[in-house]
Amino acid sequence: VGCGETCDIKHGPKTVKPFEVAVGAILTQNTAWKNVESALLGLARADLLSPHAIFHAPDEILERCIKPAGYFRQKSKKLKLFSEFVLETCQGDLKKLRAVRNAREQLLALWGIGRETADTILLYALNKPSFVVDAYTRRLFYSLSRDQEWLRRDYDDLRAICEAAIPKSVKRWQDAHALIVYWGQNQRNTPKNSELHKNGRPATIKSHGKFS
Question: Of 3, 98, 115, 193, which one has the fewest beta carbons inside 10 Å?
Answer without folding.
Answer: 193
